[in-house]
């Protein structure tokens, strides 16, 4: 997250451990729960304002408004200035180096198996 990574507090990447413990479906349920905690209840999306109002819960209370807005921009794929549930989940996966590495290795393993099955 280029816009604010220098000022954001260090965090431990817990998604791989959560994925291992909860499985894929359980991890997705937890991500959905996290989205619901952070979203603007009236709009149904995460905005910079809703993130700010929940920043202390995340240990991000020291971030400036522009840094919180940068967090939202980082995951805003459709350019509407907010994160819907899908954008939030995609962002969480992108920000998890461990989970991305595991996904890459799993994809590589599946592709290798498919090639073997096809006789290559």
UniProtKB/TrEMBL annotation:
Q: Which domain of life is it from?
A: Eukaryota
Segments forming domain EF-hand: 63-98
Looking up SUPFAM superfamilies in the UniProt record yields:
EF-hand
- Keyword terms: Calcium
Recorded GO molecular functions are: calcium ion binding
> Which Pfam families does this chain map to?
EF-hand_8
Its name, as the record gives it, is Pinoid-binding protein 1
What organism, scientifically named, is this protein from?
A: Hibiscus trionum
């Amino acid at each position: 997250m280029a816009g604010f990574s220098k000022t954001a507090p260090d965090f431990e990447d817990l998604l791989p451990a959560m994925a291992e413990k909860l499985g894929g479906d359980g991890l997705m349920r937890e991500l959905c729960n996290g989205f619901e905690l952070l979203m603007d209840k009236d709009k149904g999306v995460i905005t910079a304002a809703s993130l700010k109002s929940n920043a202390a819960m995340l240990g991000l209370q020291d971030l400036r408004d522009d840094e919180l807005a940068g967090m939202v921009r980082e995951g805003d794929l459709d350019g509407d200035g907010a994160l819907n549930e899908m954008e939030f989940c995609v962002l969480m996966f992108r920000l998890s180096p461990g989970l991305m590495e595991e996904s890459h290795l799993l994809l590589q393993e599946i592709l290798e198996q498919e090639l073997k099955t096809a006789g290559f």
